[in-house]
Design a protein that fits this description.
Elements lengths: L3 E7 L1 H7 L3 E6 L5 H11 L14 E4 L2 E3 L10 E5 L10 H4 L1 E6 L5 H8 L6 E8 L3 E2 L2 E2 L2 E6 L1 H19 L3 E7 L1 E4 L3 E9 L2 H18 L2 E7 L2 E5 L7
Parallel strand pairs: 1-5, 6-11
Antiparallel strand pairs: 1-2, 3-4, 3-5, 7-13, 8-9, 10-12, 10-14, 11-13, 14-15
Helix pairs in contact: 5-6
Amino acid sequence: MEQMHVEVLLFGRLREVARERSLRRELAPGATPVDLWGALVSWCPALPALGDGAAGVRVAVNETYCRWDTELRQGDVVAFIPPVAGGAVDDPLVSAVHVQITEAVLDARHVERIVRGDTDGAVCTFSGVVRDHHEGRVVDHLEYEAYAEMAEAEMRRIGQEALEGTGASAIALWHRIGRLAVGEASVVVSASAAHRAEAFAACRYGIDALKERAPIFKKEHGPGGELWVEGGGRPG
């Protein structure tokens, strides 16, 4: 039987355990992410089995979250994502959403200038900042990594949902990756609107959804060692 080839992407603790970020695998036609994960566990037994530590892992095919029983096709890019701790466009709603994954230092005032228009009476901004502790552990610095292409696509969807659901004018969702020191901003979400209620609502929706859905991963570094920080989550 002719085999099909898929590309596999691993992130966060999965990448670290497997010591690979990207690899290719052969599968029988009709195989699903469950089959692919089983093959990966056979290749690298240190990876968690689906019924064990992989319960929080999600799967995405071609940069879109999907179910574990989705039928894979030749050439698919399959990403296994541990729980996350984010040209000219004619559509005015889409053009009012600004997203970025960057290694550059984040400037909240710059992000605010991007979203604010002369018809807006309110701009609400949230900045997530690295603190020096977490759940009793001392933190020296954080390290962020992301599935950048998918994260930006998901952040764009989140931004559109925020504007549609609140009536806000524009929203920006920016997230930094790389090494961040205590006191530096890891994420900035800024929303503008005619009135404060809409700006508050859009900003809160944006940061809450980004933290839940964007494939961005955080590792703590401190005197006690290194630790991937993961939230909850269930397979799609």
